[in-house]
Amino acid sequence: MFSGMKIYVYDLPASYNEDWVKASERCATHLFAAEVAIHRALLSSVVRTLDPEEADFFFVPVYVSCNFSTSNGFPSLSHARSLLSSAVDFLSVRHPFWNRTQGSDHVFVASHDFGACFHAMEDMAIEEGIPEFMKKSIILQTFGVNYKHPCQEVEHVVIPPYIPPESVERAVERSPANGRRDIWAFFRGKMEVNPKNISGRFYSKGVRTAILKKYGGRRRFYLNRHRFAGYRSEIVRSVFCLCPLGWAPWSPRLVESAVLGCVPVVIADGIKLPFSETVRWPEISLTVAEKDVRNLRKILEHVAATNLSAIQRNLHEPEIKRSLLYNVPMKEGDATWRILEALRRKLGERSYRRSRVLSQ
C-alpha cells in the first residue's frame, strides 16, 4: 500500500523520549503531542523495518515539546536544539546511516509554533533559523505558510496538531440529542485588549483584539476569553468556529472545528493547511483575510444564506475526521497514514530526480 517503502525507527535512550512522558502524562495529550503519537504509531506500522539496511527513511524520536515551564505551564523550547544535537551526535557515533547521507533520509517532528526553527516567537525563530545539522533532513511540522519563510526552508510535510481522539468522541457523545447548533459564531481563547502588554501589542497581529472589540457582546457571537476544559462541547453546538492566528498562523481549532462539524473560519493570511493534497480545505472551511475581520458578520451571513449546507455536508464525510486525527495503532487513512503517503511521494520524487541525473 506504500509501494514497499520502509522506515527504520531509532531506539534512542529513554531520556530523549519516554522519560518525558513519565515525568508528565500531559506530554502525550497536549496540542504538540504529534511527536509522541507519530512515534508510537510507527512502532507498530506496516512500513516499519527492523533492518536499517533496507530502510528508505529513518525516524528520529526526540520529544522536544514536553519540557513544561513551571512559571506558566506552557512548553519551553529552550532545550530543543541541544537535545536534538545530542541525539544526532549519538546517532552519528553509534550508527553509520546518518553520516552516509548527512541526515537527508532522516525524519524529525517539529510540532510547535514555528516548527523547524524551534522557537515560539517568530522574530527569534527567524533570527535563530533551522539548526544547521537538520537542514538536509525531512521535518514533519505543524507550521506552514504559502510564502517564503526561513522556518520552512527545509524539506517538510505540514501535519495537523494533536487532538486526543477520545476527547472528540466524548464531545460527540455529549452533543445535543437533536443535533441542533444553537451557537452561531464561536470563539474561546486568548484575546488581549490591553495595548500596553506584549500580547496586546503583538499577539495575533491584533486580529483577536479586533474581533473582541467589534463583536464582543453581540448576540450572535459567542466570544469568551476564559479557559474551559469542556469547550469542545461548545464546538459541537456551533455553526461557525473562528480560527484566528495566535503567535503562529496555525491553531488546534482548525482540527477541532473540522472533526466536530463546525465550519472553520480561518483567519491567518498565507497559512498552509495540513494534507492539502487530500483534505479539500476550500470545501470544508472559510478563509477570511486578516484585514477583513471587521466585516466578519456580513461574510458569515452571506455564507449562511448561500452555501452553508454544502460546506456542512462536506464536513460530515468520515474521511475528514479520519485524516486529521492520530491513532495508536495507526488506522487506514488517519493522520500518520497521510504522513506516510507524503513520504512515499517524496521517495518517488527523489527516485525521479536521481534517474534524471543518471540519464544526463
UniProtKB/TrEMBL annotation:
Phylogenetic classification of the source organism: Eukaryota, Viridiplantae, Streptophyta, Embryophyta, Tracheophyta
GO molecular function terms listed in the Swiss-Prot or TrEMBL record: glycosyltransferase activity
UniProt key word Glycoprotein: yes
Location(s), subcellular: Golgi apparatus membrane
Superkingdom per UniProt: Eukaryota
GO cellular component, one term: Golgi membrane
Protein name per Swiss-Prot or TrEMBL: Exostosin GT47 domain-containing protein
Record-stated family: Belongs to the glycosyltransferase 47 family.
GO BP terms: glucuronoxylan biosynthetic process
Membrane topology: Single-pass type II membrane protein
Alphabetical list of Pfam families matching this protein: Exostosin_GT47
Keywords of this entry: Glycoprotein, Glycosyltransferase, Golgi apparatus, Signal-anchor, Transferase, Transmembrane
Domain Exostosin GT47, residue spans: 3-302
